[in-house]
Protein 1
Amino acid sequence: MADVKYTEEHEWIRIEGDVGTIGISQYAQEQLGDVVFVDVPQAGRTVAKGESVAVVESVKAASDIYAPASGEVVEANAALSETPGDVNTDPMGKGWFFKMKLANKAELDGLMDQAAYDAFVKGLG
Amino acid sequence: MRYLPLTDADRREMLATIGAQSGGAKSVDELFRDVPQKARLGAKVAGLPDHLGELEVERAFQGFAAKNVSPATAPFFIGAGAYRHHVPATVDYMIQRGEFLTSYTPYQPEITQGTLQYLFEFQTQVTLLTGMEVANASMYDGSTGASEAVLMANRVTRRSKALLSGGLHPQYRRIIETTGHWQGFKAVSGKPDAEGLEDLIATVDKETSCVVVQNPSFFGHVRDFSTLAEACHAAGALLIVVVTEVVSLGLLKPPGEMGADIVVCEGQSIGNGLGFGGPYVGLFATRDKYMRQMPGRLVGETVDADGKRGFVLTLSTREQHIRREKATSNICTNAGLCALAFTVHLTLLGEAGFRRLAELNHAKASQLADRLAALPDVKLLNESFFNEFTVALPKPAAPVVEALATKRILAGVPVSRLLPGDNSVENLLLLAATETATEEGMGPLVAALKEVL
Amino acid sequence: MDRSQGRTGGIVTGGASASATFTGNRALQIEEPLIFEMGQAGRTGVDLPEPPKVEDRLNGLRRGGEIGLPGLSEPQVVQHFTRLSQKNYAIDMGVYPLGSCTMKHNPRVNEKVARLAGIGDLHPLQPVSTVQGALELIDRLAHWLKTLTGMPAVAMSPAAGAHGEMCGMMAIAAALEAKGERATRRTVLAPESAHGTNPATAAALGFTVKPIPANDKGRVDLDALKAALGPDVAAIMLTNPNTCGLFESEIIEISTAVHAAGAYFYCDGANFNAIVGRVRPGDLGVDCMHINLHKTFSTPHGGGGPGAGPVVLSQALAPYAPYPWIVKSGDVWTVAEDGATVDGQPLGRLKAFHGQMGMFTRALAYIMSHGADGLKQVAEDAVLSANYVMAALKDTMTPAFDGPCMHEALFDDSFLKDTGVSTLDFAKAMIDEGYHPMTMYFPLVVHGAMLIEPTESQAKEDLDQFIAALKSLAERAKSGTAAEAFKAAPLYSPRRRLDETLAARKPVLRWRPSNNPPGSDPMKQAAE
């Protein structure tokens, strides 16, 4: 089973080999409300950990998505331009944003696992 | 005071209500208690007169007006980015309806469908005139819109060098240069292009974010920018076409058909009077693919809870009140009422009227150009033009214009006023003739010019 | 078509769900198509003469094909836009308590004088000898603005408040550049409660925006500010009275500290209407401040513009003011335009021509109508009215901060806690009561903010009715049984709540012949 980790910015990354798939969590989509647009990065773009690489927008808010690790974007979820609502209905599945080839998997060591993230969200009240 | 409904008795009662609350104030002065003592004025501001009745106010403004020469009372041929056209009475009546005049930005769409629908109609009209795919709900004016277009091109291309044509209105050029200096992009300006022969293709390179041209140019020339557009696109740059005389789009191939990526127009000519320079209305149009990089307000179609069609402000996540320091622009206000004037006037004109208006402008300008070119030592610089052209006089144009002004003839703009210090333009005079030009105006102009030269 | 679709049952309080009419109209509310759906070729609303025949000099670029503009006669145009106008709420109709926007009365004499021949019809590039009165008019307004603010200079050309902000912050950047400090002073401080334009403006100029927290009284936390000041700080951008409707009581300490750190004080003058004629910002240590003529001086808001945003400047910033400005030499007025040799180092140009003359004319008419005495009364009545609303609603709604407030009263949503009614629902219910809602969810520092600005233009009896209506709504909300009804509001407006998600997901920003208008009236023929 793939390894899923979370950031404090409510992003998830699913690690399969040296490729990570990135999206936003159930909690994040609930906070945003109806997602109307996702600006995903182009394949081939090299990104540094912490760099703003995507934007997710609801009617009244826009949030930056930060790269959880360094690497190269290998695929973006093109379907989101037609069906941004996937982020609301299936944030961990069809609502993924982009996939990246990880330059250094050790960068992911500090991220939370499911149990730690659940506790983190609970702590936000 | 006729504008203040509260009576002294009201004020006392209201203070009593406020004072009854714990910690409440007992006098108006106490309501200002958070103002530091040393900044509180005991009396009214010194050195300023007291209030006036409506009659006295009108008289004061008639006094200002009497010291000016109204274009309605003199032969008039001035253009250079602002044009005198006839505005139907219906336009001015409609924009003075209180429901339009005294409403604000349509934040509550349920009770501002009037504003939202006319802005949707306006956006559609702008796309049709410019031949573009999408337009916003207006900018402050054409000049500030041009600067916003360059900023947008920089965002789209992630580059920071703009090439500005020598045919661009000099004030527009300076606004872009000012923005570039303080906001950190490079603006490279071409030499004033009085002859209309400039070719910018060779200057477009891989660092260029955009090329800004004007059609018709500041000097009046009409150009086809299709090849320039291709060159821009090959280099990954955008072509921005500025139009200061929007009536020209009734007769000229639109920028959208030339391959423009962004079109900015000064819309004043339709529906809006000269007003000594403002407020005017900026039209801003682009391609669908750049929609989310546009500045300014956008109105979109949707449905209400009953399934009825309605309109809302949309894509507002681009804007400052949500994106704050990441907004596409700091703009908040648009030119709503001037956009309404534009839309009402263009609706009255319709396809046939708009085209005929453009034909009339071109014909009047052609007649004037021929008559001036026939004067000894006056040279017409334009082979092509719409309703405005440049002539070279045998001597500096500024004193000639002043001399004609003393004869109550408003002859045109000496190019040196807008390009001071440039000797090459000292003798150039820019003249415009619209549908308002008459034989009673042209005759005296030609005669007086002949005399002064 | 079933016109009751989507309505929630059990909330009927009137005739809103009454049976549909044949036309879809409801008495004075008339359904209106787009002009593009009603035009006919062969109709026009103007009569223009046949153009003289001339040889075409268009360089072969004559436009081919149809533009696609609809043809309508004049009566159709008048009816169309009149019907649209009747779908708008406006100051002319009643209380418009939109906080921070200052929806005060717009006198009609201002419109009249702006249209006088010799003012409204002047070309901006007429020889200056033919526009002496216009230049004098601009300078007269400039004199009022300088005197009322206690500032020595003013830049008149910015087209709106945000444009004025850009002008003022550019002047600060120019002053820093002249001192060789532009590269080192890269930080702009702004309170968390700032208008969105403040950070947007600062960021556009390359500054990094650092938020300053508020204290529990809704004012800038002076200690936090002092801690943030340093050699990297270019300026503070501060709205005063602030966006919570409160006067920054420690403003002189703030400006002193800012100046001591070598930084400048930009004041956002959006709320100058609260203090005009009673307090001069120049006495508070302000270096520059824009004035929204459409707020304080009542030029019409016009559905979102046009505005005008002159910027008053301190002696330190005056040399950097942009072109153009008016100069009087002897009895003659001239304009210093680009290239004119002048004292100082103008930062450049921000707008074509001379600024928003039509707004200057209206603002000056408003100012002269009030005079120094009337303007002071304006500020007093605006502040009195806001405090009256706050006091009257204090026990029903929940004020965010203790009073007195200035020109607007800020409430939070704690009185709606556990009612199932949100700030948005509450606002939409106000629409059915005949009021434009207050500003909602701004400032961001207050949860579920409701910002009420009554202005000086409302009679006490109208304020009393407004207060009574809000009390009634608040009590209904608190009853705990009305959440569904609030969520369904408004019922009686020309349109009910609109689907903003749909609008943003599938943007339709223009009419196209192929548009299938959703919910379009079957009585109206769809255009081809």
Protein 2
Amino acid sequence: MRRAPLLAVAAAVAIGAPLFLAVSSARNRSGEPEAEVVLTGRELRLVPVGEGRRWAVLRLDWNQDLQWTQQEPGWFDGEKLATLGFDTRLPASDSRASGFYAWQPAREVFLALELDGEAARAADRANPEGVASRSRLHPVDAALDARALRARHPDRHRVLVVRAVVAAECFARWDRETRKASPPFLRGRIQRLLVEEIQVPKEKRALLDAIASGEALPTGAGATIPEAAAGTRASAEAPRYGVVLRTGPRLEPWVVEVRRHP
Amino acid sequence: MTESSPGAPATSREEAQQRADRIGAFREELAAVEGEGVLLLTKEQRVALERHHTALLEQLARAFDVDRTARQKRLSAGMKVATLLGALALAAALYTFLYRFWGGMPVALQAGVVVAAPLFLVAGMELAARREKTLYVTLLLGLLAGASFAIGLPVLAGLFNTAFPPAALLAWAAFCGALAYAYGLRLLLVAAILFGLGFAGTLAGPTHLCIWEAFGHRPEAFLPAGALLLSVPALATHRALPGFPPAWRTLGLLSLFLPILILGRAGSASFLRLAPGTIEAVYQLLGFVLAALAVWLGVRSARPEVTNVSGGAFVAYLYVKFYDWWWAFLPRWVFFLLLGLVAVALLLLLRRFHSHSRRSPA
């Protein structure tokens, strides 16, 4: 086969694919933002700086671990799963249900994350340990139509609508006192958000880089004590940070501003 | 048929190597029959034959750098392994280098590195291919180009905080496939096919999106992909690339047999809204029929890869059925004894066919 046309195809793909990603991102950041929320270090955790990396990355904390400790399906029950297109014809009590739901593919849906709402207060009541450091962001609803979901949760400064992958599962509660499992029930499980790790542009992350690497804060970066600003004390006393996060039409987030959290 | 006739000039390194191997085998057999007194060439015939073969081998070595001795073949095998290991190590070095210094780069430079790295490596492939006939360095650069493109796309998606779609698998497949056909590199073809199959596996449902997490949950998604792979060598001749059709056929057959094996055990994994037991029975039967048919086709068309893969699938299906029937209530040693006896029976049966075909080779 002639080589030149094939090399042209390879080059076109090598250029076109990144271009597609760049255009998608540009389209997401153009026009009116879909939502804008101010989050703190509780909701946007600094990913630990490892041996190879020397810059800060933020990870959205939406209390994923609480899914494993919840004893009730809550809002994400069998009925909600059916509205999301899952095949729920087999009752959870059926002996084949576990395998039936395990084989069902996960689905991409739109997820509503509420900041410091009733779900956060309920989680704090149920799990009083670690309240001060727990993320106030909790999933509260899901739908296949982003507009319909936003219509149900119109506050664009307290509710983020994001894209997520969810699955159906058969679950049984374990009672520690009776040491028995409850009858199984159907519930949804949020596997991940499509964008969970958020890269911060270099020009905005001096404060985050300093906190993440344990260095003294750079001058003017919002240190509350003179020693930290002068570089003579570690960042353990560094103030918390706040992040202004926006999402666009594609519901993908980006950092607008990093500020010292008062 | 895609193989060229024995006397035609070689158009690829693979054909050239096959010709060189035939010359070597011919020389050995000629010496044997002369030693047994069956055939004696005249001096003129011997000189003409030797002159022809020597000139031909030199021409093949100049044009394609073929291996002419067993020692050269062993060295070539070692060079292939070194190429693969080198590519893996260099890809890891590239990834860890970027990981270390990535954050210090401005966004424009980051994006530029991601786009430029595969292009530079492809340019390197072209330079290398013009200088060396064996294409080992070309293959190493090609694997690096594929790796840099595969690594670069998710890195770029993370940089832009944009979701990374499974459609990227198609981009990777297209990139590797184009390079495979440009330089005749079968390893890149295999990578391209696997990427394509990976995309097929992410299909979540007949009318749904492709999602990474959905991979393998609906094995039927691989069946049309497998049929497509099998059709490629049938529809497109590969005269200059005789090593490619076996790769298409092997991976196409595996894309059919493996999902059928899974569906024969897990009917709940099917798209079909039938009772799981019914689905499993249908796929088990289908598996046996397809494997037997493919073995017959492979023998008939003299395609060893078809025969071997299909035969292996048939035996796997058979052993799985034996497990279903006997594992629960037979002692383990009896179970494995039965498997062994079945294997011996198959061997005797195949020997019978073999003897029969030897008596009537036509």
Protein 3
Amino acid sequence: MTAELTRGQNHPLPRARLEIRISAGTPIVAGATLGDENGRVHGVEWVAHPGTPALPGLEVSRQAAADHRLAVDLDAVPDAVHRVSVLLALPAGGQGPGRFGAVAAPFVAVTGLDGDEVASYTITGLEAESAVVALELYRRQGAWKVRAVGQGYTGGLTELLTDQSLPQAHELARGIHEAVAGGLARSVPAPPARTADGNRSRQAATPAHGTDHGAAASQGTPGTVPPVSPYDAPGVSDPQTPGAHAQHGTQQPYPAGPGDSATAGPSSAPTGGGPIDYSHPRRQDAAPPPPPPAAPPAAPGQPARPVAGDATGWSMEERLYNQVWGMFEDLARTTAAYRSAVDFADSRMEKELDQVLSDPRSRIGGQGDAAREAARTRHTQLVSQAREALDRDIAQLAAEADVVEPALPAAYARWDSPVWHAYRVPMEIPMALRLGDLHLPEADRIRIPLLVRLPLERGLWIDSGRSASLDGSFADSHEMRSLGLETAVAHAARLLAAYPAGEFTVHVIDPAGSGAQALAPLVQTGVLAAPPALGAAGTADVLARLTQRVDLVQMALRGGAPDALPPGLDTSQQLLIVNDFPHGFDDRAVNQLRYLADEGPAVGVHLMMVADREDSAGYGPLLDPLWRSLLRLTPVADDHLADPWVGHAWTYEPALVPPGSQVLRQVLTQVAAARRPWDR
Amino acid sequence: MTVNMTKGQAISLQKSDGGSLTSVRMGLGWQAAPRRGLFGSRTREIDLDASAVLFADKQPVDVVFFRHLVSDDGSVRHTGDNLVGGVGQGGDDEAILVDLQRVPVHIDQIVFTVNSFTGQTFQEVQNAFCRLVDETNGQELARYTLAGGGAYTAQIMAKVHRAGQGWAMTAIGSPANGRTFQDLMPAILPVL
């Protein structure tokens, strides 16, 4: 049974213990004044406000909020009090709205403690007022009643309190606003400072930060935490550190005042605007990431010197991964800017020269020559400007590459990097693996590592076909084949080295036995599960075993019973290297291969094909989906990879072991040694 | 200090200390106008989209909008599509960041447009504004409020163009009709 009151209307109150709920679309201050039978407020001790939230029989919130609950016990109110006025005011001094006309109409409801509504009132028709008396609870012949008042005051709290004959109205109004400002500063955390790589382009949608609202709350009121860089002090005690969310549980954002939570009950619950703590109160296992290296201060007028690992991430490995991808994107975009400027300059010059040609006047005298010359000058000028911008960016990226490359861990590093000599079999898989280098003709100096995430999401296809290699040296098909297998071995060795002992198994199908020489490092160090399979029979056998594995694991996963797998099943990731495809393959084997390519990656079975697509042309379009599902790599430098942002053709160079280097064998020997205890 | 711009007004984007701006954000905010009459509480969603078209010598070269969030050169970035607007209470609902230093040398004008993707006219939009903020310190440089929403579905808000060594901004505020920026091309060309 709710009475919806209109202005001036009154309603009897059935009980003495009540709650007054207030909701407004924006943080507002709520308070109450006690008046005698003439409506006079005798002094500041008769006003409940955020500075003095509790009076006998009355309790208001300590801060401005969009929703309030005031607790009222009319039996506990002193006998001299005949009138309780509930007042609302907009916080002063902030950048929030300064008048009620600019916010949604406040809604006030009187409810019992069990929540059932007695009377409600929506305060409409407010314009320039910044304070309003919403309701009045008053004694009438010994019983309490409520009246909807809705009296607004343009002069704010001061005028409102003066109107209630409070002598110290001015001081009190100021005190209330100060208390509110303090509460506001306490309840809203300072926005995190911009991260160090803020100038890096990111595709992801970031929220538009720095809105009026957030800025208003963070302006340096005494007692706020100054905005700290997330990298300055990532200590455990600092609640502002992003990533240290788990630590929030120990820090109470609301300092509990004396008697606050004890008497106020629901009114002390965090209301709108405060931070919400989602962390488990006692669980603290998410340790904050170690701090990234700090960038040395840049010399004035110079761009900051690059530092390896200054991107975001939870570990150095992730930071380097993000940094490499950031460099990749920056180089792609910088080059796009240069190319589009040059294209534009070319087309403009062409247009201008055409105009000169078609203008009959230009055939006489030197006018035409002058116009042609001017067009060429404009072209040269624009191109040189563009080149200047490109050179500036390339210099910066080259400096970054120079510090990043030596800092890369083994899985990201080139084979000639010293970290491979200090190789140890890892305990867990790295985030990503380097498959080679990428570069653009405009920036030949900068090699971007091509990092792919582990575990692999798609198989690899080492194209041993005749590609028109960039340097014009035309490798014959036999040479390409052996180069292809060599590349495959280097990739496979890297994968083996990246996984912990026994978690990665490599099978090889080499039907004609033609790859014996290139496969020697894998065979001789004993890292293969079995010797390379020869002939049609061997091919069929390996394919059958892997197909069965895919079937079993798939069934177990679909049935939700991974425990039901047969005990002898090898649960490690599997890589199948197929040399000389389709030699030795019959239709059945080809179908099995396609099945592995489609279904394998989801259950940890990957393909690495060393093949020339033309050789399998006899199968027709049947195999097209197979090629498309694999990541095509080449054994020689070739510009066939496109970046995801602009779509430049990047020149890919495989990560190969330098000629004569023993590092591959050393690494594989360690891998084999670490696997032995598992292989019993 | 914010300059409240009027239609056609141009301001130079020099900092007060004489240095030139390096990075600016064009913010767009709006709210759905309250509906009168029955079922007034039922909210309708208005999806306004901010786009930026990059011009070189009056030829469109690149565009940044909700399907192409970053210009190819990386200098102009859209922070993402907002489908409803109005929740920020005066904050930006969509924003486009322009790294003025990295804008390719041949780009001489960047035109900012607003389209009503859901088809409502600007009569049903209230408190729409676009503002230019110095991204390095968060200061608002200029604000242009859409006055008098009329029966059109798009507006060419403003352009940022090269002026001498630096950049300047001109408030345009000319109405047009269209769902995305492509429909606006004929309307944009006269204001270049």
